[in-house]
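Q: For a teaching session next week I want to show students how multiple molecules come together into a single three-dimensional assembly. I've collected the sequence lines for a complex. Could you give me the predicted structure tokens for the whole thing so I can convert them for display?
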Amino acid sequence: MFQNRAESLALVLPATLFAAIIFIAPVLILLSEGIRPAGGWSLAPYVSFFTTPLNLTVFIRTLKLGVLVTVAAAIIGYAAALCIVNLSAKGRGRMIGLIVLPLMISPVARTYAWIVILGRTGIVNQALEALELTDGPLRILFSETAIFIGLLQLFLPLMIISLVSALENMPRDAIAAARVLGANWLQVFWKVILPLTKEGLVIGGTLVFTGSLTAYITPAILGGSKVLMLETLLYQRVTIANDFASASVIAMILIIMSFSANLLLKRLATARAKR
Amino acid sequence: MTSRILSTTILAVVMIFLIGPFFIIVAASLSAGETLAFPPQGFSFKWVLKVFEIESFRSSFVMSMMLAIFGTLAALVIGTPVSYALARYKLPLGEAIRTIVSAPIIVPGIVVGLALLRYLVIPFGFNLTLALFLAHTALVLPYAVRVVSASMANLRSDIEEAAVLLGCSRLGAFIRVVLPNIRGGILAAFILGFVTSFNQVPVSLFLSGPGIRTLPIDMLAYLETTYDPSVAALSALLAFMSIGIVFLAERFLGFSRYV
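A: Of course. Below is the structure for the complete assembly, covering every listed component.
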């Protein structure tokens, strides 16, 4: 440890000033527009945002999709992670590599694939038609279902990785012990696995949930101009209506959500460090 | 035995869901047909070749490359000293500084883009390219600080103190002792930053103008008007590029250790 104060300040000053001026100040001014719409203090933008039916629908849809995607990711994530930790060390490494890989690929490319799959003449509709299950093509694209599928594919890897590392830290014989003592699989999951891996679940869940709430690309490609989420709504409000007050309200909602998620993660990390 | 079959089936289904769409993109981009379809109609490289002929893709690719390279370099130039200072000095406001430089992770990109457009570009006449560069630097800064900090944490301070005691200046010790030791971390931070910046969409949404667009934004715009397989071909090419970068990084520096 060095003690020279001037030296240390010189090292941190450029980045701190940069972040403060380029990043924090403009964002704070933007947020202030929601509470000072015409120069005077007022909560009018918030009131009008939450009393407009369209905005409310989008707000609720965003939360709903966030919850649904997180729950689905948790269920699939546990199933996949339990299978992965039972593999040999080599197989496990390969599997994790394959799961991490999509995270490096452009989300536009990953989301775009679903147009080919879910579109009017896409694979799903072709299959349904071949099986004569539907008259005419189903409209899956540009719906909440399409966004749900796209978000799940985008963020599932984060959940699987968090759960795999939680399961790896779990005492190896806990499951076997519970089985020997007569617990069925459901009881093993509920009473042994879940409590011992809940930290991993919270970490993965937070990443998936905030990722889904703040998604832009997925709703933009798979939701079209009708099925909006908060970020696509923000974009529309600004580009179509020049409505910066609403944009500021949405920005505040998004920041509060991802800030609380980050706070939760930080507290988990410090709690773990103390143990 | 049955549990083994069940486990293989679960993993196979999950992998098909995660990676399958990528193969469909590749197949669709090799189609000879005029519209996006799977199974592809015929086989040809014409859409892959067309990607290189579309002028706007070429210029936005260059733009995205430049932003990713120089934005990440800039973030490393200002971020590495912060990681170093946080690891080596008793800073009076250490936690606050860490929070400030990590803030871009918490604020959604679209908000950053809008704020920059409205309070830097419009009132002060910043040009869009500069604003994009600043936005991408801010975006990458938290990753740079985090990854470099992680490799600073593994570096004991006594070799550096030894260098100083033996007459090396503090800066000299940093350049000759610390930098070579955290080289891997810096490279990993560069790759992570590059990929993050290159794939980023929301932050650049509002910071686009005539002739100034990043590649993903350009792809989104192209999608709105055209339904041919060229975006599929471009997506496939980009995916191969990312896979190549990650593969090389893993091969030569064990990238996953750092991330």
